[in-house]
Specification:
single chain, alpha/beta, Rossmann fold, 6-phosphogluconate dehydrogenase C-terminal fold, 13 helices, 8 strands, 52% helix, disordered C terminus, binds nicotinamide-adenine-dinucleotide, binds prephenic acid, Prephen_DH, Cyclohexadienyl dehydrogenase
């Protein structure tokens, strides 16, 4: 999949130059995938940072200026902004341009964006499944997507040629490309990414509530598993608010199953059912091994790359 040498774009316009947008800008430059890379950013500070980092050639406040002459436009803002941005840039998109995104949810994104895509413009929604808990243009890096999945979720406005072009783009950046329906994507990501984040936010919040009882002990003894949760729970509040509001059904469905399974564990602890606990923990340990064996990374590389990036 996506083995062809990608087309070199004339102008790539990145709308929202945070962690993901700036990582794409860096990767586009590193792999020579465009003549020009530009961005749109709301604040003067972000535009100045993007220019100082030399990751874009021009930075605009008005996204319609950024998309002028662009043959690839990538929405990289929180998903809650997509509808308004698509409405604004729709009329300014060039004929023949390819519009895509990086949003962590897909059905709602297709629903919000597609109505604003003019005839003669292709739209292929996408989700690079790679990130960190950090935000902003300085947090990005060119190989963020290397060896990671990028899921394309084609819809009505996606031609085969546009899907192939986007596949080649992400492959050139180093990602493994997969295609699936937006609905399937949202169910899978609800359990592999969205619910885990909700659990992290919740456990850190609960521990924080307990601080009054335990004084500083929550911080003092948080060297183990809890520390991993605090990394995830440090993720951007706007981005995650928008993910939960825009993948409501799938998250609630998975949360329902999760709650049932948690109740079963609670019951096993209450009634001293050691075998039940042991079997469950053995099953999950085997899953971790399978993930490591199937992946490109070792457990150590995975740990070093994402567990404590602030220690780099
Ligand atoms: N962080 C991750 O791990 C990750 C991974 C994959 C996909 N995503 C998706 O990528 C998108 C961006 O996430 P991020 O982590 O780069 O966030 P980020 O906070 O680092 O960057 C988002 C940027 O968008 C800007 N922005 C917000 N509203 C805007 C608007 N109306 N016009 C222009 N700019 C605007 C913000 O100021 C910020 O600079 C989200 O849709 C998210 O779901 C994130
Ligand atoms: O490593 C992290 O910090 C992430 O949470 C990255 C992560 C994920 O859940 O895997 C978060 C949201 C994205 O949409 C894709 C990737």
């Amino acid at each position: 999949m996506g083995q062809e040498r990608p087309e070199k774009f004339k102008r790539v316009a990145i709308i929202g130059i945070g962690l993901i947008g700036s990582s794409i800008a860096r990767a586009v430059r590193l792999h020579g995938l465009a003549d020009e890379v530009v961005c749109a950013a709301k604040t003067h500070d972000t535009r100045r940072t993007a220019l100082e980092l030399k990751i874009v050639d021009h930075a605009y406040e008005d996204p319609t200026e950024a998309v002028k002459g662009a043959d690839l436009v990538i929405l990289c803002t929180p998903v809650g902004t997509y509808g308004a941005i698509a409405r604004q840039i729709g009329p300014a998109l060039e004929q023949g341009a390819l519009l895509t995104d990086v949003g962590s949810v897909k059905s709602k994104v297709v629903e919000l964006v597609e109505p604003h895509v003019p005839d003669g413009v292709d739209f292929v929604a996408a989700h690079p499944v790679a990130g960190t808990e950090k935000s902003g243009p300085a947090a990005g890096f060119a190989d963020l997507f290397a060896g990671r999945w990028c899921i394309l979720t084609p819809s009505e406005k996606s031609t085969e040629a546009a899907i192939a072009k986007l596949d080649a783009f992400w492959t050139a950046i180093g990602s493994n490309v997969e295609k699936m329906s937006p609905e399937h994507h949202d169910l899978v990501l609800a359990i592999t990414s969205h619910v885990p984040h909700l659990i992290a936010y919740n456990i850190v919040g609960t521990a924080d509530d307990l601080q009054e009882v335990t004084q500083s002990e929550v911080i003092k003894y948080s060297a183990g598993g809890f520390r991993d949760f605090t990394r995830i729970a440090a993720s951007d509040p706007t981005m995650w608010r928008d993910i939960f509001l825009n993948n409501k059904e799938a998250v609630l469905e998975m949360l329902g199953r999760f709650t049932e399974d948690l109740t079963a564990l609670q019951r096993a602890i209450r009634w001293g059912e050691g075998d039940t606990l042991f079997q469950m923990f053995s099953r999950t340990r085997a899953i971790r091994r399978q993930i490591i064996d199937a992946g490109q990374e070792t457990a150590e590389a995975d740990f070093g790359r994402t567990a404590y990036p602030e220690d780099d």
